[in-house]
Amino acid sequence: MLPIYSAVMWALQTLLRRKLQRRGREEAGYLQAIDERFGHYTQAPTEGGYVWVHAVSLGETRAAAVLLQALRAAHPGIRILLTHGTATGRAQGVSFLQEGDVQVWQPWDTPAAVQRFLTQFKPRVGIILETELWPNWVAQCNKAHVPLVLVNARMSEKSMHQAQRLSWLSRPAYQGLSAVLAQTQADAERLQNLGAKVDAVLGNLKFDAKPDATQLATALVWKQKLKRPVVLFTSSREGEEEMWLDTLQALKDVPLDAHDHINAVHWMVVPRHPQRFEEVAALIEQRGWHVSRRSEWRDGPELDHQDDVDTIWLGDSLGEMALYYGLSDAALLGGSFAPLGGQNLIESTACGCPIIMGPHTFNFAEAALLAEEAGAALRVESMAQAVTTALQMVSSGPDENAHVQGCLAFSQAHRGAAQRTVQALLPFLKTH
Asked: Which of 16, 29, 217, 246 has the highest count of CB atoms within 10 angstroms of its CB?
């Protein structure tokens, strides 16, 4: 069936180019080097020997940063071929590059594009972060004798069922991997159900990421100027901001104790996708709120608005999540209030910011459960309950501190996956 799939992917190339042009109107990064996605490169073919690391989007790229640091420490002089599928991932990945490294778009999954990619760069091994797996990648790497390893691998129940419906395509791909290193035992079992041979369960690389110390220090200075706690809506997704604003509006005129009222805190939102910054700003203003943008701050949140209870702060910058978490006393977890599976909560807890999550965390099920057990996160069933829980948490004194300590203990307890992963990759990293 692979030839039929490959023919469909070949036919979709024109549509992909149109999609990239549309996305490029909002995010210029998608217009960069479009031909790379189809295996056409401006540089001359290389001598090869790269370690190919694929991190499709921003979350995977942050995990790649941890892995790359550990790989370079264990193997000085290693040359990295870094690929991505999204503009945010590629922009973040630029900062990881060293002399001799290369960064390009992931090849579109046709035999010809993947063959050109492999011929151009001659990687000695491919390391794929988390979930991104393409049938022709596997088939062509096997044909070229390039080992392909899925690391920090995760597989939700929903994704497993989707893959099983296309088992004629997915099973050969998972069976063709040279190794799979899973995050959790549950991930391992689901991947095995799809045909993968799981070599080890090593934990989550993201626990080994250290928050930016400079950003945390800046947040502490800014926080000392504030008169009220800060509640962050982190990584919010489309549809969830409306739920959140509806809840704030419904509670705005409810007679509550001063410390339980929505005016008792500063509210801040950081949308998951940067192309939605303007959309979310407009939505906030349509609901009658003022917007104070991080991009317009000079030395912290605008003090002119500090006592303005009708102002919502908008985190409209990239690469500053440690700053936002450091500034916040609690965070609502985006993606968990609509049935989207939640977002990564590890970075928040590493910064000592407790999480309040909705009912939908199937993408990070085990991390969410462990965080809840450690007191680093609380589970609620609705946005209204999340808002009232956040207000209670940030005004509870000793209880709030207990949640902060739970965050730090949770983060410390699950570190070490980076070193374990590098050790497991050792057979594939030996010079041939």
From this structure: 29
- Residue 124 has what DSSP assignment? S
Q: What is the pTM of this model?
A: 0.86
Cα-atom radius of gyration of the chain, to the nearest Å?
Answer: 23
Helical H segments across 104-193, by residue range: 111-121, 135-143, 157-165, 167-175, 185-193
424 touches 181 (CB < 8 A): yes
E strand or H helix that includes residue 384: helix 383-394
Identify the band that residue 304 occupies on the pLDDT scale cut at 50, 70 and 90.
low
Count of positions (residues) in the chain: 432
Catalytic residue among 27, 36, 60, 320: 60
Segments forming the whole domain that contains residue 269: 213-413
Q: What is the pLDDT of residues 4-47, one digit of tens each?
A: 999 999 999 999 999 999 999 988 999 999 999 999 999 888 88
**pLDDT by residue (tens digit) across 368-422?**
999 999 999 999 999 999 999 999 999 876 666 889 999 999 999 999 999 999 9
174 domain-assigned: yes
What is the 8-class DSSP label of residue 363? G
How, if at all, do strands 330-333 and 355-357 pair?
A: parallel
373 in catalytic set: no
How many angstroms separate the CA atoms of 51 and 422, rounded?
Answer: 12
- Specify whether 80 is located in the same domain as 162: yes
Same domain, 295 and 170: no
H-run or E-run covering 244: helix 240-252
Give one DSSP letter per residue of 266-299, joined into a string. Answer: EEEEEESSGGGHHHHHHHHHHTT-EEEEGGG-SS
